[in-house]
Amino acid sequence: MSKNRCGWCVGDPLYEAYHDEEWGVPVYDDARLFEFLILETFQAGLSWITVLKKRENFRKAFDNFDYKKIVNYDASKVEDLLQDAGIIRNKLKVNATISNAQAFMKIQEEFGSFSKYIWNFVDGTPIKNKVKIYKEAPANTPLSDTISKDLKKRGFKFVGSTVIYAQMQATGMVNDHEVSCFRYHEV
């Protein structure tokens, strides 16, 4: 018996597995939040499936998304990354990853964790929308505008409102599963 899934993932086994196991599940772990933030910044202007197919390559290239290592990347490491055909080779995004690691750690110092900082925007509770068809879900909201502005003020790059809303969806801050999707009531 097949499961009723959100329309955006149907037909691609990698997309379906991501949808079924990760998308929309609340993430409170700083390391995982950083991973999603980096992947979403690389996704800016591209499709998510493009990034998802390269995820393991990103994980390897960026030291398992260890922000404590990434913060110390030098010009030589940046050049190595720009030569890595397994990732999206965009110099601005690679450099943004390093500066975002620095800004991420500053937030940790100020708030105790990035998780406390980011989840405070939704009072620690996921927003549960009632999306009937995935194409009706917004690309951004006033809340993602607010978070984006605050992150930019704190030195983050490639964190526009649309990127941040995608981050909110991916990490379960907002539940935009279609109401008919089997995951809607599970997350």
TrEMBL record:
InterPro entries: Adenine_glyco, DNA-3mA_glycosylase, DNA_glycosylase, Tag
This protein's UniProt keywords: DNA damage, DNA repair, Hydrolase, Metal-binding, Zinc
Class of enzymatic activity (EC top level): hydrolase
Keyword Hydrolase: yes
EC number: 3.2.2.20
Amino-acid positions noted as binding Zn(2+) in the UniProt annotation, renumbered to this chain: C6, H19, H177, C181
A GO MF label: metal ion binding
Catalysed reactions listed for this entry: Hydrolysis of alkylated DNA, releasing 3-methyladenine
Transmembrane regions listed in the UniProt entry: none
Presence of the UniProt keyword Hydrolase in the record: yes
Entries under Pfam families matching the protein: Adenine_glyco (PF03352)
One Gene Ontology biological process: base-excision repair
Role description: Hydrolysis of the deoxyribose N-glycosidic bond to excise 3-methyladenine from the damaged DNA polymer formed by alkylation lesions.
Protein name from the UniProt record: DNA-3-methyladenine glycosylase I
Organism the protein comes from: Winogradskyella pacifica
